[in-house]
Amino acid sequence: MNLIETKGLAKQFNETAAVKDLNLSVREGACTALLGPNGAGKTTALNMLTGLMKPTDGTIHFHANYPGDRREYLGYLPQHPKFFGWMSGLEYVTFAAQLAGLEKEEAVARAKEMLDLVGLTDNRAKKTAGYSGGMKQRLGIAQALVHSPKMIMLDEPVSALDPIGRREILELMKELKKRTSILFSTHVLHDAEEVSDDIYIMKKGEVVAEGSLVSLQEKYRQPAIVIETERNLADWAQLIEDKAWLRHMNTEETKATLTVENIENARTELLNDSSLQQLNIVKFEVMKTSLEDLFMQVMN
């Protein structure tokens, strides 16, 4: 079932339309990504869903199984979370639990449980001022989960992290999918591909592509050939621009990525191309275009 749905959701700031006609559905138990470049409207959309910002137009519906204020059922981690440096990790998450209405004893117990879940057991007595970036993100996720929400919303949860911290949070998100629904925003394409079940690609406040990860891959992924040579292949690339089997070509000095209609015809002709062979081929790889290629396609 759909846990939350929007219809015609919009937000206008003076003459600027930050979000336009957003029709979004988040399935219960799924991980859904809002994917798009900076300025696409992702954060504004999340702020409206959490109740932090009032929409200019449109509606937001939470499933009838969960009546009342939807904020009771939501956990949220903003892109730039603020922490009280004088608090320990345990004190901070306990404080968040009490703000959500838990009694002190239950709040402490839940805080310890969530800190264990996110891998901060050994650091829960440490002041948050001494936490690394990755530790702070895990702490933020712990506070978002402490009141057992039906869905958590994470705004760019890995964008400011180093590679190790990014990997830790992505692995944690894979585990969290087993416990709750997730809606997160990101401009990092491979992260969305790694953890998402459903994806909404946004551009200038509008959704330009949507669907499950599998359906988007089936719809947009196309056969491609990657060629790398020792010599510059720009002149050779001009010779094949009008080939019937060629859909799109991207060249970078000694590398070319060809999106093709018929992989067999393209491969046979390229491997028998004497002009290409004279450039000294060092790589010839048949592949499928990725979510990144889809992202670039819809952005353009």
The gyration radius over C-alpha positions equals 23 Å
Distance between the termini: 33 Å
How do the strands line up in the largest sheet? 6-7-8-4-9-10
Residue share in β-strands: 25-35%
**What is CATH's topology name of the largest domain?**
Rossmann fold
Order of helices and strands: EEEEHEEHHHEHEHEEHEHEEHHEH
Count helical runs: 11
Q: How much is the average pLDDT?
A: 92
Count of extended strands: 14
Shape: elongated
Q: What CATH architecture of the largest domain do you see?
A: 3-Layer(aba) Sandwich
Q: Quickly count the domains.
A: 2
The CATH class assignment of the largest domain is Alpha Beta
Under CATH, the homologous superfamily of the largest domain reads P-loop containing nucleotide triphosphate hydrolases
Unreliable spans are none
Helix content: 25-40%
* Biggest sheet statistics: 6 strands, mixed
Look at the helices and sheets and give the structural class: alpha/beta
InterPro entries: AAA+_ATPase, ABC_transporter-like_ATP-bd, ABC_transporter-like_CS, DrrA1/2-like_C, P-loop_NTPase
Organism: Salisediminibacterium halotolerans
Domain ABC transporter: 4-229
Protein name: ABC-2 type transport system ATP-binding protein
